[in-house]
Amino acid sequence: MSDGVEEDREITREISALLADSRAEQLDDAVERLRQNSGDQWNRIVKEEALLENGTDLLIRVMKRFPDLAELAGECIAAATSENVICGSGAPTTVTFGTPPHEVQFHMQTADYYGAGLGYKIWPAAIALARAIYQHDVSLGDHPKVVEIGAGVGLAGIAAAKFGEASSVCFTDMMAGSLEIAMRNAKRNCPSVGEFSSTVVDWRDADGLPDDADVMLGADVIYEEAHAELILQLLRNFHGKKAVLALMPQRPGYREFTAKLRNLKSVQVAKMSVSTPIGECSILDISVID
């Protein structure tokens, strides 16, 4: 292996370590050096890295943080695994509720896998949460004002308006592009139901959520270990009455989150489990006590 290739591999490993520590400024510098140094070798280098332990996780993180690298990183993931493994059920664009002749279909815009972050897909946990709302397995209250965190393309929030009689839904996400798609999906599937809005929210800003929301929704929002404490902090600062979170127990951070959640004196938690194509999904119905 040439010295240049080995140098690029070292930079790739450096990116992985920096991502784990969330040192954004140094990460930006490392990625820029990788782009400048590797040139046409980037594709081959990262494909090799994808075959190493945690390599795919590195690529997913790069896709989320650097949209201009997403297409190339997506090709590398496909070379090492398959997009269905990454996206769970294959990211459907039509979601069906009920059975004929009373079935309801949502036609959801997503985005092509290559060139788009993972928030632009419909994940199994979001479908599980939407169906729980449809089946009234969880109650959102009387015409609640709903905020969806990590909304992506907006499936759970749209279900809250359509089936949960939400008077308003505010989609929140850190990616403005996915919020634009969520608003289009809301207009397409609920043209005369509910009031929709969107706002970019960074979970590190616990005060970023709307103050007037009654219910918080979130699907697969504990995706990394760092998310556990961030979501707990959102719950501590939430002024509403309840939160309903659909979480995947196999995700890093799930055990830490649920253990700490049980120790919060300000909440009561009811749990139900449903099956999805990528494993069990835990739907947590969290009542916030004044």
From TrEMBL:
One of its GO terms (molecular function) is methyltransferase activity. It comes from the Eukaryota. One of its GO terms (biological process) is methylation. Keywords: Methyltransferase, Transferase. Pfam families: Methyltransf_16. PANTHER family: HEPATOCELLULAR CARCINOMA-ASSOCIATED ANTIGEN. This is Methyltransferase-like protein 21B. It comes from Perkinsus olseni (Perkinsus atlanticus).
